[in-house]
Amino acid sequence: MERRNAWKDYNNTEIKELEKLCKDYRLFLDNGKTERECVKEIVKAAEEAGYINIEEIIKSKKKIKTNDKIYAVNMKKSVALFRIGTEPIVNGMNILGAHIDSPRMDVKQNPLYEDTDLAYLDTHYYGGIKKYQWVTLPLAIHGVVALKNGEVIDIVIGENDKDPVFCVTDLLIHLAGEQMDKKANKVIEGEQLDILVGSKPLPKEDKEAVKKMVLSVLKKKYKMEEEDFLSAELEIVPAGKARNAGLDESMIIGYGQDDRVCAYTSLAAMLDMPKVSRTACCLLVDKEEIGSVGATGMQSKFFENSVAELMNAMGDYSDLNLKRCLAASFMLSSDVSAAFDPNFASAFEKKNCAYFGRGVVFNKFTGSRGKSGSNDANAEYVGKLRKIMDDNNVAFQTAELGKVDIGGGGTIAYILSLYGMNVIDSGVAVLNMHAPWEITSKADIYEAYKSYKAFLKDA
Question: Is the pTM value of this prediction over 0.90?
Fold first, then answer.
């Protein structure tokens, strides 16, 4: 059951639509390198499309009606969009769910130190990474600093051409004989992922003069004292913009495509939807890379509470109605899949893996080694989705994450399935997943967008 390469079937109009979508997507990647930045971009786009903050609905006690567009934000790190359908919401929703956090390094709370006239920021990596991939790269700092007076300062250093960048150093090859004998997960240890931030001493200072110079710069530019690191959220990400990749410019290379490629295509599909019969929802959350925990992860009550507020403003709320709505919903857990890489063919089972250019990927199950930790979609639901994709001329493929005993992974799917709703993983195939620079196919991005629109319309 080999799937056809989608590029072979595009006409000129579709190619133009594809390139426009991918250009906008690259801009989203550039402007949204953290979950906070993503939420800002999402809210801006939603409000331009006529969406209203649910907090305004609650305060004004306005009644929500058919075709209304509502959004809710959780701690500036997660967001849910709703387009009210003509059917009663208790009959369920069509939900697109993705995550907007990505692997990175986070600055520790007491991070700044000096060693032999060099100043560093100590970090703790976030999510599953190959640590050796993050050394010797130009890095940027993104995040916020919350001062004691209540002021919150946005920080982005390393993206403007005039900005400095940062780096994690590595041992020169001439002295690396012992290092090169180590296993890959030990070549660079977690505590070695400290970024170099300065080497010039503050004049007339003898003790920790380089550190003091760094602090003077932070004070001048960002009003920061050293203790302000205690209430800062600073993320270390690759510096630079997403780019077209390949001589044919058929691919995109950029940071954070897991899972912002699915988040953006879900958002674009949601904003482009006309009137819907079943209420449509686009749910974009934080913390998936570390288990969907915390107040902004999928395991929080944010989504459930938002739906409850929505139903209350529609005059339909009861605990039973909320449960019925969630149980009757359909969901695409929009997350990336591993693309087949011929350089590492032994990790894949060729009949059941994802390929570049062959469309959006459906993973009936995820998990690892015996489907442990997996959501396993029902056959009836898969059959329903097959019909929707074929009826809407969407190129799709099915896959699992590597050979049975090689490894595996998880998404937010299993959490939503706890409500009793039908859920399946659906997304874009990625090369270099969890690396600083990931690669996707423009055709797959376009087909994901098409599939999400078809799902919201027909599921």
Answer: yes
